Amino acid sequence: MTIPLNVVLGLSAVLFSIGVFGFLARRNIILMLISIEIMLTAVNISLAGFSHYSGDARGQVLALFVIAIAAAEAGIGLGLLIALTRNKPGANVSDLTDLKG
Amino acid sequence: MNLANAIFYYMAAASIASALLAVTRKNPVHSMLWVLALFLHVAGVFLLLRAEFLAAVQVIVYAGAILIFYLFIVMLLDLSGEHARPRFGKQWPLAAAVGVIFIVLMMVSQVESGRQSEDTAVVQSEATQHGSVAWVGQQLFGPFALPFEIVSLVLLAAIIGAVVLARRRAVTT
């Protein structure tokens, strides 16, 4: 494959921006969490690309750690979400205004 | 343009399209299915970058475990009122502006760095000699053995945390 590294990093940047947009714009907590997953995947593409183009396995090892942290984050985030919807049904951040001054 | 390049561009275009659809669909289940398509295409990108183990982990852990977990939560919660709500908050033009500015900044910085170093040739790596999976495994259980063990502690903390958070509290008034 003769793709330059810039194209791989460009793909990663575009996916990361879509994740940023989703996190900031969506009002559903589940969709916000899945936007974080999209951002983490974009970073993994960067790491795999650097690993490939520098001939160094450490990028792939870091990407594996990122996947492990993403799994931990999904478990904690969705546990929080279940605890939250027990008190306020609907999983929408627009309803969560208890701390508003 | 050879076949691998064509496949890479297809994977890239399909990833971007399914990510866009995932963050814009109204139905959360449809969003999850588009994210599934995104993760499978990203696994294809990993394969083209000769990260075979990462591609397998992407399919098994991300698409197989994490995403199914999200789908379970979507179906567990009652989101029937969600269709009547606007899918974006009032601040969505600002969020779109932040995303576009981020893309532009990344592209500018890459063009600048590309001007400084023109060579993007693939380094003849160890992976081509004895396989990427063995290579990653040697790194993981050699220099990265301590971080690997710490990740297991992080996952244990996440398991306990999720159980504690989602447990139904006994009513003690």
Sequence-ordered SSE layout with sheet pairings:
The complex is a heterodimer of chains A (101) and B (173).
Chain A: H1 5-25, H2 29-54, H3 58-87
Chain B: H1 3-24, H2 28-48, H3 52-76, H4 92-116, H5 127-130, H6 132-141, H7 145-166
Helix pairs in contact in B: 1-2, 2-3
Outline:
By secondary structure, chain A is mainly α. Chain A has helices spanning 5-25, 29-54, 58-87. Chain B has helices spanning 3-24, 28-48, 52-76, 92-116, 127-130, 132-141, 145-166.
Description:
The complex is a heterodimer of chains A (101) and B (173). Chain A has helices at residues 5-25, 29-54, 58-87. In chain A, helix 2 runs antiparallel to helix 3. Chain A has 101 residues and is an all-alpha fold. Chain B is an all-alpha fold and 173 residues long. Helix content of chain B is 75%, strand content 0%. Chain B has helices spanning 3-24, 28-48, 52-76, 92-116, 127-130, 132-141, 145-166. In chain B, helix 1 (3-24) packs antiparallel against helix 2 (28-48) and helix 2 (28-48) runs antiparallel to helix 3. The longest helix of chain B is centred in the middle third of the chain and has 25 residues, at 52-76. Chain B is extended. The termini of chain B are far apart. Classes of the chains: A mainly alpha (101), B mainly alpha (173). The interface between A and B is large, with 76 and 90 residues.
